[in-house]
Amino acid sequence: MVSRKLREELGPDYDEGNIMVLARVMHRGLDGRSHPMTRVLLYDNKAAGEVVARTVDEEWLRLKTPREAAIWSICLYVSRSMNAEERSKVGAAFDAVVTRSGLRSPECQRRNMAS
């Protein structure tokens, strides 16, 4: 999706041989948005009487586990042979695309462009 939108943003200036967008998702199973521990059932084998399955406490999950169940990263690579002006144009277009797509907040875009 980001590659397609970047191609649309740059129009005829998009050079497939010099621009590459790499998207990567690393998750712990499930759908990438649900934490796997939300599906775990716990049993108290020391309890007297019938053993009842319980889910993991949501408050414990919130406090003790990483917030995101997945890590998403999108990287822009450009050829070394591109001059600084071309790189800057591609970088600005990439920043605009990921911000409009909701993958980065506008504040982050401003911070990254300033550095």
TrEMBL record:
Name of this protein: Uncharacterized protein
